[in-house]
């Protein structure tokens, strides 16, 4: 019957009082106690999905990853369109490489999100979330570095050496702008995963 019932029975027997049935509220509390951890964990999982809309395994998380892929593809397309200008600077090579890595990383995570939604799985395991935090953090940092380097190189070419009089820089400017949007989305994903990791731990 539990600890409460044993203590009450001992008190009744020592006082010479006939045993009485336990109150209904105490019986219900004893029956519901083993179910509380399971219900609490389920409620926490559902609550974190509502509080953190960009968490993995959700529609918004998948849309965020797909958006990163689309803007990264657009950035690579604009860079390749001015291949003569793109091939002269290591900064643009670095930015183009980071956009390709963002496509691979975000597309892989988007596939995991689709799998989780189809099978109704909650992707709140500590190991998986920690992997996403590290991956998103590295990708966001390197993307910001590549965008900053490319923008500095373009500023040098436009303002100092007048290189854009001979080569059209419009496509490169569009490519850097789209790469900056990719960084903003990647930083949003990193902060969301970091907040989710704090909730889990």
TrEMBL record:
It comes from the Eukaryota. Coiled coil: none annotated. The chain crosses the membrane at residues 92-116, 128-149, 180-200. It is found in: Cell membrane. It is a multi-pass membrane protein. GO terms for cellular component: plasma membrane. Residues 56-185 form the Casparian strip membrane protein domain. Homodimer and heterodimers. Belongs to the Casparian strip membrane proteins (CASP) family. This is CASP-like protein. The lineage of its organism: Eukaryota, Viridiplantae, Streptophyta, Embryophyta, Tracheophyta.
């Amino acid at each position: 019957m539990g600890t409460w019932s044993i203590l009450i029975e001992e008190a009744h027997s020592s006082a010479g009082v006939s045993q009485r049935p336990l109150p209904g509220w105490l019986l219900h509390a004893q029956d519901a106690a083993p179910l509380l951890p399971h219900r609490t964990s389920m409620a926490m999982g559902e609550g974190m999905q509502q509080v953190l809309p960009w968490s993995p395994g959700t529609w918004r998380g998948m849309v965020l990853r797909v958006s990163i892929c689309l803007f990264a593809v657009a950035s690579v397309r604009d860079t390749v369109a001015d291949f003569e200008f793109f091939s002269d600077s290591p900064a643009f090579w670095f930015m183009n490489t980071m956009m390709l890595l963002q496509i691979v990383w975000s597309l892989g995570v988007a596939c995991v999100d689709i799998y989780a939604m189809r099978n109704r799985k909650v992707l709140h395991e500590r190991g998986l979330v920690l992997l996403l935090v590290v991956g998103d953090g590295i990708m966001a940092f390197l993307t910001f570095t590549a965008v900053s380097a490319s923008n500095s190189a373009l500023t040098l070419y436009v303002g100092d050496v007048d290189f854009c009089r001979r080569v059209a820089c419009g496509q490169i400017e569009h490519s850097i702008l789209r790469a900056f949007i990719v960084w903003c989305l990647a930083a949003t994903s990193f902060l969301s995963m970091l907040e989710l990791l704090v909730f889990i731990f």
